[in-house]
Amino acid sequence: MNLLEKKILRRIKVGDIHEFETLFREYYERLCAFGNKYLGNLEQAEEVIQDTFYNIWKNREVINIKTSLKSYLYTAVKNNCLQVIRTRSLDIKYENYYKSHYSNESISPIDELNAKELSKVIDKALNSLPERCQKIFRMSRYEGLKYHEIAEKLKISIKTVEANMGKALKHFRGQLKDYAEIVS
Amino acid sequence: MKTNTNIENWNLIAKYYANECSQEEIDNLNIWIADNKNNEQIFNQTKQDLELINLTNSMNKINIDSAWEKVKNRIQEADENESVISKSRTLNFSRVFKYAAMVVILLGIGFISNKIYNNKVNNTFVEYLSNSEQGKELILPDGSTVVLNANSKLSFSKVFANNERRVTLEGEAFFDVTKNPNKPFIIETNNAEVKVLGTSFNVNANLPNKQVEVFVKTGLVQLSDASNSNNKILIEPGNVGVLDNKQIFKHTNIDANKIAWKTKEIVFKEEKLDNVIKILNRVYNANIVCTDQAVLDLNYTSTFEGQEIDSILNVICMTFNLKLDSTENQIKLIHHNN
Question: Taking the domain B125-252, which CATH number applies?
């Protein structure tokens, strides 16, 4: 733990809720994205993160953190997600799958990625597409419309929808290259 | 499929991930993927891209403010329950006992304080006594921090009023006040009222003749006579304001060790050992004595940062060939030859 983290933790231990709020705000989104990876459900992930923070506050006086604050948070979230999976499905195999799948204790760089930062990259990539292409992509990915529905709405052929979707994905691949390299 | 141009494969990949492919198209795609590693990689990476895009899209729906509200409410509810439980909890270990003892004192004096402050029923008073413990850091309801010197006492309302933040101090404390221009922070001590909007400063009411001394580190602080609020001065950073029997004045701080009791940063510059001992006693709430006038007249120059009193004394002893004679509540400096 570095000095700053020690100071943060010390203040939290003596009951400084403002310091705790700062910590919460700094990590909340990132941890939600991380929890979502396990649970496949952002709402549930949010609940887990809130529980995790609540419990940290409740036990703040006795908590003993040997690693960095960050890896403590990620590990706590991971364990709590596995707990949710365990109670959600009584199938032990499922849990084992997750455990083996994410057995590596280390946090992948993508987990540390600031959600806002990623959001900026994606927005930028999307906005640099031609307007019609953007519109088609949004309708398909965000609104869940079928190709033929998009074609009807925009009065274009299904082939045009296909071509624009292909174009959009190729474009994103180019823009997200750096991020995806971190992931793989 | 090898004859396909790249863009057509992108169309097929997109179609696949949009669940628009016919069985024939899926078969074609599989052949294309199996054809070489590069194709397979593009196919898999596109999946990751889409996952990132999906995640980001749903992340935008996250509302940190409301999430924090939820957590905070749970904490507050738990705190309220906790205080009910703690009254009936048996005193298992010394730490709990210490807090319990504090509560007892709190009730005794809190009763009087309540009387002074208009008998507000729901205005619970909290009182902290530092006893001989030095450097106790308190967090006030508004997030301001107070470090108490030894033998000092701070009392304040658990919930501050709407228009001001008022605390009462006996002894000495260092304040780091959070900024809130709408709610001035007021410290009552002896006959003085110290008023600030957000700053850090040291208040010492631990002086003879009910003197109050305010040393300002940052910001602007107003010191006034509690019995005559027209009698007041503004104190700028680096200055010391003094209220001495209805007289208020200020001067530039020349004491390098003014808040050393908090910072544990001590400077001795050509200082007589007599004074060095006085400063150390004040800074560490210690009881160091020396009766040898020849030793007391020695000049000492050095700076210390964050050191324990023992190691400072050892350095001094080595410098002047002295030795320590420690008893339970006193440390005596004597010359080695004696």
Answer: 2.60.120.1440
Q: Is the ipTM of this complex over 0.85?
A: no
Give the residue-averaged pLDDT of A108-122. 66
Q: Where do the structural domains in chain B lie, given as residue ranges?
A: 7-122, 125-252, 264-335
Mean local confidence (pLDDT), B176-182: 75
Architecture in CATH of B264-335: 3-Layer(bab) Sandwich (3.55)
pLDDT confidence of residue A180: 52
Name which of B6, B22, B62, B178 to mutate to probe chain A: the one with the most chain A Cβ atoms within 10 A of its Cβ: B62
Q: Does A162 touch chain B (CB under 8 A)?
A: yes
Question: Considering only CB atoms, which chain A residues are within 8 Å of B44?
Answer: 184
Contacts of A28 in chain B (CB under 8 A): 62, 64, 67-68
Task: Please tell me the least confidently modeled range out of B100-109, B178-187, B289-298.
Answer: B100-109
CB contact under 8 A, A173 and B45: yes
Q: d(Cα A135, Cα A168) in Å, to the nearest integer?
A: 10
H or E segment to which residue B156 belongs: strand B153-157
Q: Look at residue B104 in the predicted model and tell me its pLDDT.
A: 28
CA B110/CA B105 separation, integer angstroms: 8
The pLDDT assigned to A22 comes to 92
How many beta-carbon contacts under 8 Å exist across A and B?
A: 125
From B72, which residue of chain A is nearest by alpha-carbon distance?
A: A54
Task: Name the more confident of A104 and B306.
Answer: B306
A128-131, Cβ contacts within 8 angstroms, sequence gap of 24 or more: A128/A171, A128/A175, A129/A167, A129/A168, A129/A171
